[in-house]
């Protein structure tokens, strides 16, 4: 039995390493293209910060896994540090999903009332507020040092869990509302990046929620149950953070065509963003005709023909009157 458990633990450990390395590469490509090759619209700012949070989580995960493989034991700061990056990503995903939902439900109000730098401010607040919320709880519950303050741990932990579960509900509910609204209530074609919102919400529900439950139940689980559940939750969390670049690729690709990654990524964002210097400018969401992109410019010859049209009509009317 111990041999089977040891084999299972080794398989999960190396799968986590493999998924983490692939996710690091994917998020690094997203960071590179969004940071240097694509002009960022409001939604692209969220995607950039989400990729940074996922890259940080996977990097910390691989670093602590290397320490564990070298020393044979888990570092005491392992869970607290990695969960900081995970919680930042959860804050960003909730804000991204909520803003996409509001932009589709109330387009006129969204375009008229939204401040220009909302995305940057929200991302900055996520990076500023998420780490203290996690680290205060970790310190009170004995994850950063040996001593544990029971009453403070219960208070901080309850507040932290309530906030994180609320963010997870916002992210998933926004994707669900977009799905129902697009299928039943709206006749407009959906931009491509709504597929990224739906995919991210589903990925959070399937792969991110176990890691969040592990944080929720850690003070109450016996050590043998925690040692069984935590490696699987960590593997699923790595899948959650590694899968988002694949979602962007699947949403932005066109079947049967081989295109540069930056073109696929730009199309998946669906904002009409433009590539940087030396790149190609693309409309990101559809061919002409959808309401969020302007129509193509009318040629001068067409304008001349249209201006001469009323005169031609009046001349024909005069001829008919003469008859």
TrEMBL record:
The entry's keywords: Cell membrane, G-protein coupled receptor, Membrane, Receptor, Transducer, Transmembrane, Transmembrane helix
Residue spans crossing the bilayer: 12-31, 43-64, 76-98, 119-138, 158-181, 193-213, 225-251
GO CC terms in record: plasma membrane
InterPro entries tied to this protein: MRGPCRFAMILY
Classification via SUPFAM superfamilies: Family A G protein-coupled receptor-like (SSF81321)
Entry coiled-coil feature ranges: none
Molecular function GO terms recorded: G protein-coupled receptor activity
Residues making up the signal peptide according to the UniProt record: none
Region of interest called Disordered, as start-end residue ranges on this chain: 304-323
Biased composition range(s): Low complexity: 306-317
Membrane topology of this protein: Multi-pass membrane protein
Subcellular location: Cell membrane
PANTHER family for the chain: MAS-RELATED G-PROTEIN COUPLED RECEPTOR, MAS-RELATED G-PROTEIN COUPLED RECEPTOR MEMBER G
Family named by the database record: Belongs to the G-protein coupled receptor 1 family. Mas subfamily.
Name of the protein described by the UniProt record: Mas-related G-protein coupled receptor member G
Organism: Bos mutus (wild yak)
Species lineage: Eukaryota, Metazoa, Chordata, Craniata, Vertebrata
